[in-house]
Every structure is written in structure tokens, then in C-alpha cells.
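Structure first, sequence second, as always.
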């Protein structure tokens, strides 16, 4: 399922299955990956991005983001800004 955030919806949440979550509009958003292998990509704000129960791809945008991996093999990419990446054993690139 494809979910795109707006400035009026700061919570962007995945469902069961494989989801793609995007926060293009800027603003400070909170991304929650659901069950399945998800892709979560933030915009320009200071965002919180949390992986779900499977191996997810988490991408920070231009702000100062917090990226949290789950207990699976997530890949976390900080992007621009001063980002904090935290997770289980995973491939991490800042």
C-alpha cells in the first residue's frame, strides 16, 4: 500500500503487508511501519521513523530525524541533517 503524508496528517502509519510511506510535504512527521517489509521515507521536517516487525528500509530526509529499527534486519539511512539512528543488528549508513 502507498501512503503519502500531508501537513495536516503528522502520523503516517503502515498496515499489514508491504507498505511504502512517504512524507513529502515537510513538517514534523511520525512514521510507523506495520507488519510486512516496508519502505519509510521522510521529507524536510524533523521526523521520527520507526520500522515495523519485518526487515524495513528507513530513509531520513532533510531535517534532524530519529530512525529506529526493529528487531529484524532493517536498513537505516540518515540523509541530510543531524540524525540519530538506532536499531538492532542491521546495515547502517549515516
Amino acid at each position: 500500500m502507498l501512503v503519502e503524508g500531508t501537513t495536516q496528517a503528522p502520523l503516517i502509519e503502515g498496515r499489514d503487508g508491504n507498505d511504502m510511506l512517504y512524507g513529502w510535504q515537510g513538517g514534523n512527521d511520525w512514521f510507523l511501519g506495520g507488519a510486512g517489509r516496508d519502505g519509510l521515507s521522510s521529507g524536510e521536517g524533523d521526523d521520527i521513523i520507526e520500522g515495523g516487525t519485518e526487515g524495513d528500509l528507513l530513509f531520513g530526509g532533510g531535517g534532524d530525524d530519529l530512525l529506529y529499527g526493529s528487531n529484524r534486519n532493517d536498513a537505516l539511512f540518515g540523509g541530510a541533517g543531524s540524525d540519530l539512528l538506532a536499531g538492532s543488528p542491521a546495515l547502517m549508513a549515516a
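Margin note: The chain has one domain: 2-93.
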